[in-house]
Structures are given as structure tokens and as C-alpha cells.
Input
Amino acid sequence: MTAPPDPGPSFCDRFVELFDADFPRIYRYLDRLTGEPELAADLAQEAFVRLYRRGALPDAPGAWLITVALNLLRNERSSRSRRRRLLTLSRGERAHSDPAPSPEQAAEAEDSRRRVRLAVDQLPERERRLLLLQAEGYSYGDLAAALQLNPASVGTLLARAREQFRALYEERLDAP
Amino acid sequence: MHLDQEQIQRLLHRELPAGVEASLREHLAGCGDCRGRLQSAERTERVVQGLLRRLDHPVPRVDARTIEAMAGAPRWSEWSRWAAGILIVLGGVTVAYAVPGSPLRDWVRTLTGRVNGGPARAPAPPIVPAPQAGTGGIAVVPGPRLVIQFTSSQVVGQVRVSLGDRDEVVVEGPSGGARFTTEAGRLVIDNPGSSATFEIEIPREAPWVEIRVERRRIFLKAGPRVTTESGAAVQGVYRISLAPPRG
Output
């Protein structure tokens, strides 16, 4: 077994800085994308583990991390049956729910969340990823690199994705 | 000439070189149509951000040191897979032993009685297997005093403790993540090399339940009073790291 490369102190400092800045937004992005907080946490951690093992920061670390995380997600989905779920659904939901709200408030919040989830899930994959990544403040350069888009048209695609999402959500509102 | 959609979005997200932005803002100052489109794009963005936030869950507390430790940790070798397999089998036997009415208990008692004929030990608390599918776990009636003992610290993984209305202490983790054994007043979770996260639900009415990692106390419920290493519960869950203390 070979030891991981010694990254040196400057890499460590930069890694910690990047981790503190980027872990929450990568986690949030994956959480919104998948709707599975446990999976999102696993994938975000694994992406950073791979970055650390790389021993040097890439030119565009944000885009690199997104690409790795999305590859991990693809692999995860293709080997879903091998995954051991840590928590049952009911326990996971209970852990993340607000203990205080009334039954009516809880039902309303859940209904709203469900509608947003459905609208997100109905977006085409490229638009979904673009919308969610931009919501986390990634630069157009990162978006273009991670999603292999023409950098000159990121803004136009984003506007379209946002409008599409809004329309899908409002369609759900109008539904009986 | 009016701004196109790409320019509107790039203005909104500050994605333009300073010179270009200045010239577009100059245009905006004199063009109500383009100003209106920019404001509309800002509104849409705010609405969409608000909707997306409804999907969010709390960001888990992980720090860069944990990632460094995970990255440096050796990967599973062939022999450790074998060792894990043996542990899983032992865990299964332990749970089978713990099930009320299990014939395994009588067999073991008969065998040990034949070997040493010693005095009977204090009876272990009644145990029932945890009901959740897809996870490994155990449920044990806490009695007047229960110590839940993790035998090892973990580089990653945590224990999530909540108070509930059931009568038993319920411990759950991924199948094969640890071996559970019980004796009077103690539930031992043998977790060397594990990176699992465990969920523990403690009856609200339990008089005294303590959770220890090696020799360190990480959680204590004494009557209604709870003290932990991690501070207050978030949404009813105490999330306590199983990592060794720093420094």
C-alpha cells in the first residue's frame, strides 16, 4: 500500500480554507439535487477526500469538486442496491423536522416542500444542475466548466432554467 | 439597442468586466425598458432562491481535519475484510443469543455449566431485536441505570441521541457496523475500525443512561437532566462526535 502524497503546509492551509468555504454549498447543492441529506453529506465528504488525496489544488477547485461529486453521484445511483442505508426514512425525516409547528403548519410546509421538489425533479437535467449550482453562487466560469457549457451563453441558459422552474412550480400551485 | 438576456443575467450576477458593466449601466440609466427587465430578473431570482431554500436540511458539522484523517486512513485490505466478516458473524450470534427465548442461551448455559459449574451471573436486562429493517441494532430495557459503552473512538462517524416514548433504549447502525453485547446494566458496542454513525433513542422516563466512548463520557441523562459533550440538542437530536478528543 502506498502512502498518500505529502501535500505540504501551503496545500493544507488552502485546502482548509477551500473546505470551509465550499463544503456547505456543495452539500446544499447535492442535498437539493438528490433530496437525500445523508447521501449529500457522504458525496460532499468523498469529493473533498479525493481532492485531499490529489495533493494539489486544481486550477478551478470549485468546478473540479462539482465534477467529482456529480461523478460520485452517478456511480452511487448505478450501484444503489449495494448501498446500506444508515437511517430508515421515518427516522431521517423525524431528525430533520421542526419539533414545534402545529399539525397544520407542518402539513403546509411539507406540501410546499413537495411542490418545490417536484418542480426541481421535472426540470431537464442540465437546467436542474445549472439552476441549483448558480443558487449556491458558483461563477459562470465554474458552471461552464462543470457542466460543459458554452461560457458565452451561461446567463441565457440560467434565465431559461429559472423561468422553467418557476412555471413548473406555479403549475403545481394551480393543480387541484 | 437594448440589452440581451445574457447581458441582463451577467449584470445581475456581476459577471462582467468592469468596463463593460459601466457601459451597460450607462445604458440602463436612460432605458426604462431594460431597467424593468433587470428588476424583473432580480425578482425572479429572489423568488426562486426562496423556493429552493425550502428543500434545505441543516449542513452537517464536518471539519477539514476529519477529511484529512479520512484521506489518510488506510483502505480496507483483504485481511481486514475477512476480519469484518468474522465480526459480522459474531454480531449475528450475539443478537441471536440476545433474542428472548433463543435456544442458543440454553445451549451456552448448558455448555458453560458443564465446564465450570460456577454461580449464576446477574441476569441481563430483557432484550428485543431492534425493529428497523436495513439496519443493524438492538433494543434493551434500561432499568435503573444503563451504561452504553463504545469500545473505540472513531475517526469519522457520530452518535445521534434522541429521547423518545418507547420503553427500550434502541441503538441502530449500519448492518455489520458494530457488534452489540449486553450484560447487567451495560450495553457494549464493539466498534473498532468503524466509521458508522449510530442512532440511539433513549426513553424519556429512563432514570439514568450514560454513553461512553472508551473511558470518556459523552452523554449523560440523569432523571430529566441531560449533559453532553456536544451541547444542546438541535431539533431534538444530540449529535456527538465519536472522534477522540483533540490535543
